[in-house]
Write a structure and sequence with these properties.
The protein is an alpha/beta fold. Among the domains are: about 120 residues, 3-Layer(aba) Sandwich (Rossmann fold), CATH 3.40.50.12160; about 110 residues, 2-Layer Sandwich (Transcription Regulator spoIIAA), CATH 3.30.750.210; about 55 residues, Nucleic acid-binding proteins (OB fold (Dihydrolipoamide Acetyltransferase, E2P), Beta Barrel), CATH 2.40.50.140. It is built from 14 helices and 21 strands. The structure holds 5'-deoxyadenosine (5AD) and iron/sulfur cluster. The site of iron/sulfur cluster has 10 residues, from helix 6.
Length: about 450
C-alpha cells in the first residue's frame, strides 16, 4: 500500500508554496496525503532558519514526534526546508529524524522516503542552481481562495545578518511561461487571489522570451491572465523597487494597492553594516514616490532592533522613520545571530538582550499606535473586500481583506467566501477594521 504523508509548514509564504510543490511531487509518485497527523506513515516538517526561535520550535516539535514514533514503529519523520539545509548533520544525529532534504532536492523526495525503508538515515542537501520546480503544479492543501506562486528562488543579496542566501542558494528566476501556466491552473480551480513570491521579486528576469520579461512586465501579464482575481507580491527589496513597478500597480485595477517593503533599520550606519545597499533617504524617496503615484497604497515592513553596533540614537532613527512613513503594519523582531553569516563572523552581537527586548517593546508600542491611527482614518471609507471566511469570534461575522491587506470583519448577509463585496468601515482597532456591507 502507498505511504500516506502529512506535512507541516513553518516560516514564510515561500515555504507554504514549497509544501504545495512537495505534495504535488509525492502525489505524482502515488503517495497519499492526510491532514490528520495520526494517520500518517510519513511526517514532514518544512522548516525555517531565519531566527533562532524558528529553529527552536522544530526541536520542540521533534520531542513531541518522538512520542508518536514510540507508538508507531514504522513512522518516518523528515525535515525539509531551510533548517535541513543549514544543519543537516545535526538533524540526522537526532534519533527521531529519518530523512533530511534541502530546498533544491524536493524532486528526489519520493526516492528519499522509499530509501528510509532500507537505510536508517537519508539525506540530500545538494544545491541545484537550475531547480525552479518548473512544470509542477502545486497542490493546494487548503480550501483557501488564494494561491502562491514562487517566481524566483534563492537570494544574492547577502544582507550581513541573513541566513537565507546560505539555505536557499543563489537567486534564479523561473521561466515566465511556466509561471503563467500556473496562473491558468489557479484560475481553473477558482482562485481569487494570487501572490507572486520571491526573496526579492524585483530582480525577476526571464530571458527565454523574445524580449526579456522583468518583474513589472510579469505582474502585468499575470494580472491580464486572471483579470477577475487579485494579484499580490512579496518581498520587494527597496534598492530594486522601480518607478516602473509602482506605475504598473497604479495602472492595473486587480494588482493590489499594497507594498511590503522591508526597511530593517532607519539608521544609515546600521543599514551599511547590514549590507542593505540603500540609505534611509533612498528608502524615504521610494515611499514618497509610492504615496505620490498610489495615494491609497497600503504599506507594511519588516524591521528589527539590536543589530551589531546599534546605539540608542540609531534605534531612535528607526522609530523616527516608522513615525514618518506611518506603515499600516510591521513585522518586528530583535536581532538573532545566524551562524555562517557575515555578521556572525565579523560583527559582535553587542546589544545586551534586555536592551533588545526593551527596544522591541518600544517599537511594537509605536507601531500599534500608528496602526490604530491609520485604521481610525479609514472609518467612513468604503473598501472592496475579498471574503476569506467566517470570523474566529462569531459565525454571524465574515472576514476578508482590503486591497491594502487590512483585515475587515462584518455581518454576513447573503454572501460567501471568495466573493468581492463593498464594505463601509464603521469602527477600527489597531489590528482590524469593522464594517457593514453596502
Ligand atoms: N535576526 C532577526 N531578524 C532577522 N530577519 C532576517 N534575519 C534576521 C536575523 N538574523 C528578519 C528581517 C527579514 C525577516 C524575514 O526576518 O526583518 O526581512
Ligand atoms: Fe535575507 Fe537580505 Fe536576501 Fe532578504 S534580501 S532573503 S534579508 S539576504
Amino acid at each position: 500500500m502507498s505511504k500516506v504523508i502529512y506535512i507541516e509548514t513553518y516560516g514564510c509564504q515561500m515555504n507554504v508554496a514549497d509544501s504545495e510543490t512537495v505534495l504535488s511531487i509525492v502525489q505524482s509518485e502515488n503517495f497519499g496525503y492526510t491532514k490528520d497527523i495520526l494517520k500518517a506513515d510519513v511526517i514532514i516538517l518544512n522548516t525555517c532558519s531565519v531566527r533562532d526561535n524558528a529553529e527552536q520550535k522544530i526541536w520542540n516539535r521533534l520531542d513531541y514526534l518522538k512520542g508518536l514514533k514510540r507508538k508507531n514503529k514504522s513512522l518516518k519523520i523528515g525535515i525539509i526546508g531551510c533548517m535541513a539545509q543549514r544543519i543537516d548533520r545535526e538533524l540526522l544525529e537526532n534519533q527521531t529524524v529519518d530523512f533530511v532534504a534541502g530546498p533544491d532536492s524536493y524532486r528526489n523526495l519520493p526516492e528519499l522516503i522509499n530509501e528510509t525503508d532500507i537505510v536508517p538515515k537519508v539525506c540530500n542537501v545538494e544545491f541545484n542552481i537550475n531547480e525552479t520546480y518548473s512544470g509542477i503544479n502545486p497542490i493546494k492543501t487548503n480550501e483557501n481562495i488564494s494561491g502562491f506562486i514562487s517566481i524566483t528562488r534563492g537570494c544574492n543579496n547577502f544582507c550581513s545578518y541573513c541566513v537565507v542566501p546560505y539555505t536557499r542558494g543563489r537567486e534564479r528566476s523561473r521561466d515566465c511561461k511556466g509561471i503563467l501556466n500556473e496562473v491558468e491552473y489557479l484560475k481553473s480551480v477558482n482562485c481569487k487571489e494570487i501572490t507572486l513570491l520571491g526573496q526579492n521579486v524585483n530582480s525577476y528576469i526571464c530571458e527565454t522570451e523574445k524580449y526579456p520579461v522583468n518583474f513589472p512586465k510579469l505582474i502585468e501579464l499575470t494580472a491580464e491572465t486572471i483579470p477577475e482575481s487579485r494579484i499580490r507580491f512579496t518581498t520587494s527589496h527597496p534598492k530594486d523597487l522601480s518607478d516602473e513597478l509602482i506605475k504598473v500597480i497604479a495602472d492595473n485595477k486587480n494588482i493590489c494597492n499594497h507594498i511590503h517593503l522591508p526597511v530593517q533599520s532607519g539608521s544609515n550606519k546600521i543599514l551599511k553594516l547590514m549590507n542593505r545597499k540603500y540609505t534611509r533617504e533612498w528608502y524615504l524617496d521610494r515611499i514618497n514616490t509610492i504615496k505620490k503615484i498610489i495615494p491609497e497604497c497600503g504599506l507594511s515592513t519588516d524591521v528589527f532592533c539590536g543589530f551589531s553596533g546599534e546605539t540608542e540614537e540609531d534605534f531612535q532613527q528607526t522609530l523616527d522613520l516608522m513615525e514618518h512613513v506611518k506603515f499600516d503594519s510591521a513585522f518586528m523582531f530583535k536581532y538573532s545571530v545566524r551562524q555562517g553569516t557575515y555578521a556572525a563572523k565579523n560583527l559582535p552581537d553587542d546589544v545586551p538582550e534586555e536592551t533588545k527586548i526593551d527596544r522591541l517593546n518600544r517599537m511594537i508600542e509605536l507601531q500599534n499606535k500608528i496602526s490604530l491611527q491609520n485604521n481610525k482614518a479609514d472609518i467612513g471609507k468604503t473598501f472592496e473586500v475579498l471574503i476569506e471566511g467566517f470570523s474566529k469570534r462569531s459565525d454571524d461575522m465574515l472576514f476578508g481583506r482590503t486591497q491594502q491587506n487590512k483585515v475587515v470583519v462584518f455581518f454576513k448577509k447573503n454572501v460567501t467566501k471568495g466573493e468581492f463585496v463593498k464594505v463601509k468601515i464603521t469602527d477600527a482597532s489597531s489590528a482590524t477594521l469593522k464594517g457593514i456591507i453596502i
